[in-house]
Specification:
Structural class: alpha+beta
Number of helices: 7
Strand content: 25-35%
Distance between the termini: 11 Å
Length: about 280
């Protein structure tokens, strides 16, 4: 994307990438949360110029299928393919189990999971009220496919299919998956119920310890407790890698002490997946 539209309060302006990167650091931080594609109006992000020669650019993980600005790329094709696969699974299955240990792959195959004692089997048998046994069909999905399908508009976020988290904890998909823009905060961490929050990252702080979603400007995601593990797993080396990245995590949402900002606290270092925007 060479241009992006910025709507900030009553101000509406279309910036070229050259014009936007010449703004002051303060203005860039102020406006970058309010960028959108000039054609499809999908939420957009700004990536700074990198030290290794990559130029500054606008991008979006939310282009519609027919948007001319989106273009075709291996990443977009992979995301669209995963959305189709997940929709098929929703149609054919009774229950989906989330594999938090799958790191994802650039291929279309489902990545292998790390061995886990609590990993659910692919089939379970339960008794009905009549006393007969009923086979429950379970599909296992890695975090990459879940995130990609949500980013590409699959039916998962609105589905009533049961999602198993760990061994035995089941939620309806529509009650589990929450886009950052729709996150509701509890008064405290103690009161908050865990959900799977997803969307795109706008940018991080200078220390790379807090992530700011692009879907809203009132949420912060602290990752400093797990920073080294997460960055090593997803090959994050600098702030630019996080700009425009897709993200899904299992955690709790609650207000800060002044009730001015929502905090989404990651459950642990395993329950997160980051999809870096490919240049």
């Amino acid at each position: 994307m060479l241009d992006a539209k910025c709507t900030y309060g009553e101000e509406v302006c279309t910036y070229s990438i050259l014009g936007f990167q010449e703004l002051s650091e303060t203005d860039i931080e102020k406006y970058r949360q309010f960028l959108e594609c000039t054609e499809c109006k999908g939420k957009a992000f700004f990536r700074k110029k990198s030290s290794d020669g990559k130029g500054a650019c606008f991008g979006s993980r939310y282009h519609t299928e027919n948007c001319g600005e989106g273009g075709s790329s291996p990443q977009r094709e992979r995301e669209s393919r995963h959305a189709v696969e997940v929709n098929q699974i929703i149609s054919d299955s009774n229950l989906v189990s989330i594999d938090f240990f799958s790191l994802g792959s650039k291929s279309s195959s489902e990545p292998k999971a790390r061995p886990s004692k609590s990993k659910p089997s692919t089939n379970k048998t339960s008794k009905t009220h009549s006393g007969t046994n009923k086979q429950t069909r379970i599909k296992v999905l890695g975090m990459e496919k879940v995130l990609n399908s949500l980013m590409r508009g699959s039916d998962l976020a609105e589905s009533s299919i049961l999602i198993e988290v760990d061994n035995g904890y089941k939620y309806k998909a529509k009650n589990l998956f929450v886009n950052f823009a729709d996150a509701e905060a509890s008064d405290s961490s103690k009161d908050a119920k865990p959900k799977m929050y997803w969307g795109a990252i706008s940018h991080s702080d200078k220390e790379l310890e807090w992530l700011n979603p692009s879907d809203c400007n009132d949420i912060g995601i602290p990752i400093y407790k797990h920073k080294s593990i997460i960055f090593d797993r997803f090959k994050v080396e600098k702030g630019r890698d996080l700009e425009g990245a897709g993200i899904i995590l299992f955690g709790k949402c609650f207000w800060n002490s002044k009730k001015t900002r929502k905090i989404i606290e990651l459950w642990n270092s395993d329950r997160i997946f980051i999809s870096i925007a490919e240049d």
